[in-house]
Amino acid sequence: MIHYLTDPLSYAFVRHALVVCTVAGGLCGLLGVFVTLKGMSYIGHGLSHAIFGGAAICAAIGLNFFIGAGIWGLMTGLSVSRVTRRRLIASDAAIGVMTTASFALGIALLGLYSRVRQSIEATVFGSVLGVSMTDVVIIIGVTLATVIIVIAFYRQLLFTTFDPDVAAVSGVRTNRIDALLMLLLCAAILTSMQVLGVTLIAAALVIPPVVARMLTNSFSRMLWISSGIGAAAGAVGMYVSYHLDISSGATIVLVNFGVFAVVFALTGPRRHRRALGGTTAIPEPLHHSAPAPTPTPADATLP
Amino acid sequence: MTLRSVSCHYGGDIVLDDIDLVIGSGTFTGIVGPSGSGKTTLLKALLGTVAPASGMITRRPGLRIGYVPQVETIDWSFPVTVSDVVLMARPQRRFAPWPTRAERTEVAATLERLGIADLGRRHIRDLSGGQQQRVFIARAMLGSPDVLIMDEPTSGVDVRTRHEVVHLLADLNDDGLAMVLSTHDLNGIATHLPHIVCLNRDIKGSGSPREVLTPEVLERTYGAPMDVLEHAGMPIVVDRPRDRADIIELRRHA
Lengths: 303, 254
What we know:
The complex is a heterodimer.
Chain A: H1 2-6, H2 12-37, H3 42-61, H4 65-85, H5 91-112, H6 117-125, H7 133-152, H8 154-162, H9 164-169, H10 174-196, H11 201-215, H12 219-244, H13 248-275, H14 297-300
Chain B: E1 2-10, E2 13-22, E3 28-32, H1 39-47, E4 54-58, E5 65-68, H2 82-87, H3 101-113, H4 129-141, E6 147-151, H5 159-174, E7 178-183, E8 195-200, E9 202-207, H6 209-212, H7 215-222, E10 226-231, E11 234-239, H8 244-253
Parallel strand pairs in B: 3-7, 3-8, 5-6, 6-7
Antiparallel strand pairs in B: 1-2, 1-4, 8-9, 10-11
């Protein structure tokens, strides 16, 4: 049994892929918490498609993938944030318009330049083949930077995610925080895209936080649990991908979905009880300002 | 805070027109008016998040403002506890995100002051309406504000919760905290306040409930006939009943 785990590690590319899949899963799980709680689950799907367009342009003109596709994705993400914040159109519509246009551009380039086809197809579905030491170093660097930024800006990120209007009134520079989050998201998608694939990366951003939310009512614990689920699904998915010889993006997402199904089944009865009114609200404490049961006009007018 | 001839526009639409208003220390002002009358824009102008197109807003140097949003805008399924919500108001001044001992003490003292000291670890969804409102007042109070601005603090709550919130705000006002709130609730809230501003793009009336809640001012503000009755010394605002012929006609159509 153990040889199923150890044999693949004799290949350098598998060792690299294992690290990249695990770290990418954890990174997407971490950032996915903010994405899902902001009600922007679709943004991961949209950004990955936008980056696909950027990647196609880079491949066509011979520009560095990380620089070109990263700038393209970041500009798209910031445009979506700006349009959404100004409430010109709804966020899902903004994502749909801007990112599918970028994806269509990628498809067009795919048709025009046949030499682009090979690298683009690997980008769409994800592959553990050809994961290099450079990829390992880049994703670990991005993940460390993300963790440091999330810790350093924890309260601003939490406040902006929970209550952006009041956060802005309270002195939090919500525009900058949103831009920072978009930058981290673009970096995560860029570095994870190779193993997760454009079409499946959204699931890695959404499923772990959804599972974590079913398991905890604490924001900080949700960050830990979501990252852990994402990392574990990445590692298991990589092994399944290797042994069954199917795309790593698909296996990682399927493992994530399996975890979701199990947790949903186990926590379902509890949620059902809550939905039926079994919340744990406790009685109001008595204190100095406890009101009279009915207003008496004589004493109700404030001084 | 003082507003002098303040006007605010959204695009070409005039939302506030030539507003003069003074919010003094320890005052308690209610802003009433129909939907779309500019109440929220006036609160945003006071907060400084909407810039006036003309006129001037002056604030005392160092004035601290707390803001309580409408609880109906809150995502109650968000995974935060009462302490998490209150602590959001305190800027993170060091790398580690967890609260310092001083911050924990401050949060505990604020929750104690608002009568929810034992709810710090509870999820915000698992609270009664009054407790939920107290949490967001506690967050606004953490910065020791001089003035508390509240957008519809009793919107969507039951009668018991409304009484509880009114008494809580009265207690805080007694402690010297200036209050400005917007409300749709004329009888449940506005008649209990010492000062009311009737707003519909411009100020239609300003003063005590007895001075302002008159059929003339209410018709100018709401554009519909309303009567004011008196019950135990307090004004009670009611819709003017239709005459008998109108009612018979309505029944016939029904």
